[in-house]
């Protein structure tokens, strides 16, 4: 458990005890003091945490044999609440196990980055305060969990996502060292530095870009986003940033239809149920040849699999074999141009996706 989460639990339980004691020994109205403390303590701990936490160096002391990034805590289990959502919250573990059956090489296990590092990479303090409150988190994850204490959601949901976000940043470091890396989670493309949405809380793609710029001094970064949904979060963060070149293929009839964010896209193709595997691969190949310039220094590949046939949210019809060809094509282009590439799993909400993801990753790394 993170120190922050421990303190959060301490204050939550403390508030409840204060309210009960005041109710018993003073009067009913005095309980409100406990409730008041419950509502304002996040301001106190956020202020202290932001003040005391410092930016850290991002280093990898034990270089893994294979640049796959995975931590068992990526998987979300919240006493069954996660089952209300169509998202397969344990797909990371299932993909990892599938890979481990054939590849025994040691992978990389990320640690949580410090708050100071997230702030240095651009996270909004105001947004971080807002996600202390379950009423606000409910609007981002599309679950009616506003009645739960914020700390409950932090422990069982947000900390997993924050660890996966840290994994994406470490993945960028590994990709620079090894030429490629795959984080078996991340790709929260609807989150920006000051706003979440669509089950995305932390803007790992933006944070990776900012890491590459601030820590590694890179100036030309490409995001290839092939998830079925528009990557409106990071697009909003890079609306006026010419150093980030965004290629985004998505179904423009579905969420989020963010017209403002669209302005950041340099290459867009609409895909939907009528797009066949052959058409998709042909368009992708042509656009990568045209848009992937030789002076690009890094590729962030958001490899969502919700374009697969049958996905209730993506509403596209690409087959599992189409996914394999797509991933192979992107990696081939990156290798051909000698550009480091970081792959993030992003969306893909059916249980069947897991096998397709595992098979595709295995073909990339064997
Ligand atoms: Zn998606």
| Approximate helicity band | 40-55%
Strands of the widest sheet, in order across it, are: 1-2-7-6-3-4-5
Secondary structure tally: strands: 7
> What fold name stands as the CATH topology of the largest domain?
Arginase, Chain A
Order of helices and strands: HHEHHHHHEHEHEHEHEHEH
Report the structural category. Answer: alpha/beta
Tally of helical segments: 13
Low-confidence stretches: none
**In percent, how much strand structure appears in the residues?**
5-15%
> What would CATH call the class of the largest domain?
Alpha Beta
Coarse shape: globular
What would the average pLDDT be, to the nearest integer?
92
What small ligands are held by the chains?
zinc ion
By CATH's scheme, which homologous superfamily of the largest domain applies?
Histone deacetylase domain
Mind describing the biggest β-sheet?
7 strands, parallel
CATH-defined architecture of the largest domain: 3-Layer(aba) Sandwich
Number of structural units classed as domains: 2
Distance between the ends: 35 Å
Structure characteristics:
366 residues; Arginase, Chain A; 46% helix; globular; membrane; His_deacetylse_dom; transmembrane helix; transmembrane; Histone deacetylase domain-containing protein
């Amino acid at each position: 458990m993170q120190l922050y989460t421990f303190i959060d639990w301490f204050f939550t339980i403390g508030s409840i005890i204060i309210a009960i004691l005041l109710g018993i020994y003073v009067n009913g109205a005095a309980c409100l003091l406990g409730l008041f403390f419950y509502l304002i303590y996040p301001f106190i701990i956020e202020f202290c945490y932001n003040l005391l936490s410092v930016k850290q160096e991002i280093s990898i002391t034990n270089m893994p044999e294979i640049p796959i990034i995975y931590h068992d805590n990526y998987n979300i289990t919240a006493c069954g609440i996660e089952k209300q959502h169509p998202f397969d919250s344990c797909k990371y573990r299932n993909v990892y196990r599938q890979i481990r059956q054939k590849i025994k090489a040691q992978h990389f296990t990320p640690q949580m980055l410090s708050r100071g590092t997230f702030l240095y990479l651009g996270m909004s303090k105001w947004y971080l305060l807002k996600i202390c409150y379950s009423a606000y988190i409910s609007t981002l994850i599309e679950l009616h969990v506003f009645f739960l204490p914020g700390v409950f959601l932090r422990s069982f949901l947000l900390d997993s996502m924050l660890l996966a976000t840290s994994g994406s940043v470490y993945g960028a470091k590994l990709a620079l060292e090894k030429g490629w890396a795959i984080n078996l989670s991340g790709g929260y493309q609807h989150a920006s530095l000051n706003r979440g949405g669509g089950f995305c809380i932390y803007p790992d793609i933006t944070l990776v870009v900012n890491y590459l710029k601030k820590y590694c001094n890179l100036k030309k970064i490409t995001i290839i986003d092939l998830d079925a949904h528009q990557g409106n979060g990071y697009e909003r963060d890079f609306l006026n940033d010419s150093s980030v070149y965004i290629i985004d293929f998505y179904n423009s009839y579905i969420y989020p239809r963010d017209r403002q964010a669209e302005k950041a896209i340099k290459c867009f193709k609409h895909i939907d149920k009528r797009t066949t595997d052959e058409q998709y691969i042909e368009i992708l190949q042509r656009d990568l040849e045209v848009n992937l310039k030789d002076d690009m220094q890094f590729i962030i590949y958001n490899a969502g699999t919700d374009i697969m046939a049958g996905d209730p949210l993506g509403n596209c019809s690409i087959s599992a074999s189409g996914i394999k060809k797509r991933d192979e094509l992107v990696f081939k282009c990156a290798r051909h141009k000698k550009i480091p590439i970081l792959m993030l799993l992003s969306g893909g909400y059916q249980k069947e996706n897991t096998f397709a993801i595992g098979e595709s990753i295995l073909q990339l790394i064997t």
